[in-house]
Amino acid sequence: MDLITQGLVGATIAQAGAKPSEVRLASFVGFCAPLLADADALIRSSEDPLLVLENHRHFTHALVFIPVGALVASLLLWLLLRKRLGFKPIYYYAFLGYATAGFLDACTSYGTHLLWPFSDGRIAWSIISIIDPVFSIGLIAALVFGLIKKKTNGAKAGLVFAAAYLLLGVIQHGRAESVALAEGQQRGHTLERLIVKPTLGNLMLWRTVYESEGMYYVDAVRVGLKGTVFSGNTIEVFDINHDLPLLNDQSVVYRDIQRFELFSDGFLAWHPDHPTVLGDIRYAMVPTSIRPLWGIEVNLDEPDEHVPFNTYRTLSDAERKAFMAMLFD
């Protein structure tokens, strides 16, 4: 999730496990520790833009790395807090906070190497958006109560709230998936693959993408008291052998496409506005749109150069209004 919410979850669980006299220090340690997990985003190269995609949410988010990550965080925090708190309690609170990093990120749709090195698969339960103000505000309220009262009851209530909210995400995801399946079947399609992802900041409106007979069908599903489908657009599935038959399979561009395809779980399509950009169709600014949020620029004239990675985050007023209409109307 976003860094602030990541820290809030870490602070909440550390505060819940703290001694009354250490509530504030525990909250600080718990907030800081999980932020260290995202240091893997610093593993990047100006010559190889895809390196950061491969390494972000990688080994630093793995379950087996928790003791190591907590130790590194403890050593750094001990330099700051050694006159107020011993190393042992610092490590304990850092461990509690750091342990939430991989799990919370696995709850989002981006994907996390939670089981590395035993599995290199990216786990993405897609039950909460990367930014969700309701989730974050609930945690803030619980933390503030604990900090003021110097008691752990507020944090424990915050953990109950967080668990309940994530459970609601599981339920809403399942409801959206059922609606998407029914919609595809009603259209007479055989759904070969289906993904369901929450849209920004809510658990009501979901983006669904399914593949059928060489096409991606992109829709939005709102799951309130009933399921409502907002029909989106369709786009052809990318096939490297069909779309780029002359590209040498030993070239850098070919290997980069394979790397990006692995990152995108195979959901690739050409950007409708940028003919040379191969996009990750799982994400878009508007849930019914086939304009991907990011993609790689394929230059066949330079097959031995790494592909650039571009993002497309602009949102017009019309698109913003369309999003809000799907969410609330």
Give a written overview of the molecule.
Helix content is 44%, strand content 14%. It has 329 residues and is an alpha+beta fold. The protein is built from ten helices and eight strands. The strands form two sheets. The protein has a four-stranded antiparallel sheet, with helices on one face. A four-stranded antiparallel sheet has the order 5-6-7-8, with helices on one face. The longest helix is centred in the middle third of the chain and has 34 residues, at 153-186. Among the domains are: 3-125, no CATH class; 238-321, no CATH class. A hairpin with a 2-residue loop joins strand 2 (205-212) and strand 3. It has helices at residues 3-16, 23-32, 51-55, 66-81, 87-106, 133-149, 153-186, 240-243, 252-263, 317-328, and strands spanning 193-198, 205-212, 215-223, 227-236, 268-270, 277-280, 294-297, 309-311. The model has no long low-confidence stretch (mean pLDDT 95).
* Mean pLDDT reading: 95
Shape, please? globular
**Within the largest sheet, what's the order of strands?**
1-2-3-4
Structural class comes to: alpha+beta
How much strand?
5-15%
Q: So how many helices?
A: 10
Q: What is the ordering of alpha helices and beta strands?
A: HHHHHHHEEEEHHEEEEH
Query: How does the major sheet shape up?
Result: 4 strands, antiparallel
Which segments are poorly predicted (pLDDT under 50) over 5 or more consecutive residues?
none
Distance N to C terminus: 28 Å
**Number of strand elements:** 8
As a whole number of angstroms, the C-alpha radius of gyration is 22 Å
Percent range for helical residues? Answer: 40-55%
